[in-house]
Amino acid sequence: MTFAAIAAHFEVTRERVRQWHVKLCPSAPRGHERQRQCALQRSKRRLLRQPLFRTFYRHVRDHFEPGRVALIAGRDGFRATAVRLDGHRIAIRKATVKYQNGTAISYGLSGGTADVDFLYYRLLQDEFLLVPRAAIPPRGVAYRQSAESPYEAYRNTFTAVSAPRLARQAS
User: Fold this and answer.
1) Interval 104-122 mean pLDDT
2) pLDDT at residue 44, rounded to an integer
3) Measured between alpha carbons, how far is 142 from 103 in angstroms, rounded to an integer?
4) Angle, helices 31-48/51-63, rounded to nearest 10 degrees
5) What order do you get walking across the sheet with 118-124 strand by strand?
6) 33-57 in b/e burial notation, b at 16+ Cβ within 10 A?
7) pLDDT band at 147, cuts 50/70/90?
8) How many CB atoms lie under 10 A from the CB of residue 121?
9) Which one of 15, 118, 150, 151 is most buried, by most CB atoms within 10 A?
10) Can you tell me the mean pLDDT for 130-140?
11) Backbone torsions φ then ψ of 13, nearest 5 degrees
């Protein structure tokens, strides 16, 4: 919140709000550092307004404790299409519906780039795939929800991210 907004609310000057800030929060950032931190907070709020990222964040929050997801800075705030989870870079994408016939749905999964470790695909609002990049061909692949699909093991779970980490800890 800006000092001007606080000043208007309490009907005092911005200078008086600045003085309160110094007196009540002596270790709090001031000046350009405070502006920079406010800009970062606004950028995070903008990111959570994007439907695809918001869905990803909700799924991650259900599986991991806070602090394990790190946002990746871009030129104009944070990137909405990639994050770091336990040091792994994850690309966030929406799977495209290729074919729909009754309850069986087929999705198109676009290929991964070399700079990511995993690909998160949002299928439906409450369903997703988290697949290692090496499992998706560069030109992409079609995914159909069935027990025979090699990608079914990656559906609605983050075990692909946890498994390599657990293997490293065991050795």
Assistant:
1) 85
2) 87
3) 16
4) 90
5) 69-74, 77-85, 88-94, 118-124, 127-132
6) eeeeeeeeeeeeeebeeeeebebbb
7) confident
8) 25
9) 118
10) 90
11) -85, 160
Q: Taking 70 as the threshold, does the pLDDT of residue 57 lie above it?
A: yes
Token reading at 140: 């992409």
- As beta bridge partners, residue 132 has 118
> 51-170 maps to which CATH number?
3.40.1350.10
Domain ranges of the chain: 3-47, 51-170
pLDDT, average across residues 100-109: 72
For residues 58 and 69, give the distance between their C-alpha atoms in angstroms, rounded to a whole number: 12
pLDDT at 8 over 90: yes
Q: What is the rounded average pLDDT of the residues 128-146?
A: 89
CA dihedral 18, 20, 24, 30 (to 10 degrees): 0
Backbone conformation region of residue 145, classed left if phi is above 0, alpha if psi is from -120 to 50, else beta: beta
Output the 3-class SS for 57-103.
HHHHHHHCCCCCEEEEEECCEEEEEEEEECCEEEEEEECEEEEEECC
Report yes or no: 154 and 131 within 8 Å, Cβ to Cβ: yes
pLDDT for residue 159 is more than 60: yes
What are the helix (H) ranges across 25-67?
A: 31-48, 51-63
**Burial classification of residue 94, based on how many CB atoms lie within 10 Å of its CB (0-12 exposed, 13-18 middle, 19 or more buried):** middle
